Amino acid sequence: MFFDLYSIEGILCASLVSYLLFRSFYRLLLDPLSSIPGPSIAALTTHYQTYFNIIKGGQFLFKIRDLHEAYGPIIRIGPNEIHINDPEFCDQIYSLQGRWDKDPAFVNQFDNTDSAFGTIPHELHRIRRRAFNNFFSKQKIVSLEPMIQSIVDKLCERLESYSGTGKEVPIRHAYECLTNDVVMEYALGRGDNNVEHVDFNPELHETIKLLGMSGHYMKLIPGIQSILPWIPPWVITRLVPAMKPIVALQKVVLLPSL
User: Fold this and answer.
1) pTM of the entire structure?
2) Distance CA 16, CA 27 (A)
3) From the centroid of its chain, how far is CA 108?
């Protein structure tokens, strides 16, 4: 049954349609990015990315590659987002003179704008980032070489143990274990020894994959991250077993500081 155009419902519906039509017209023809090539639907809505990242299971990264082949080195992949595949632009984008605020749509998925990583304004981020400079200086990174080498040596020994066994090496899991062990040792001072785990800890792989996919949902529904701390850990691990390592890490790292 159609409603009266002059009713409240009719006015609201007409207003919504008018807004969507005007926004589409602006994004396609008047927006400063309108001259940059790319699929029209990507210019109209961010849900173009949502389709590939959620429905297609994180495939937008590969879709970008296809779009570059079709449209060139600089393409529009969202209403307010472009993607560049041209080495000549690296110096301009990553220049020390550059002043780039982070995209709120990207940062809000982490629900932590008080952290250095989640800080949106460039100047404030620069101040917060300065506190980490010593941890990533050349001298400090060089000093980590013995620790990194020891973990690499363990990984090499594990890989050699597969020789002549006919067993398939889960190499992706192996590299994930290597990365995790290095980061945990440096950032938190604890050795998880995942590289020595049987079959390179497949549970860790599932957790990393889950976190990667959850980022797409967090971006689609900002604020959902803030609800998770209110859910009892046992409920989370019962519903999503792959979250067990994350819950365990929170108990070790976060709770003592509260």
Assistant:
1) 0.73
2) 16
3) 11
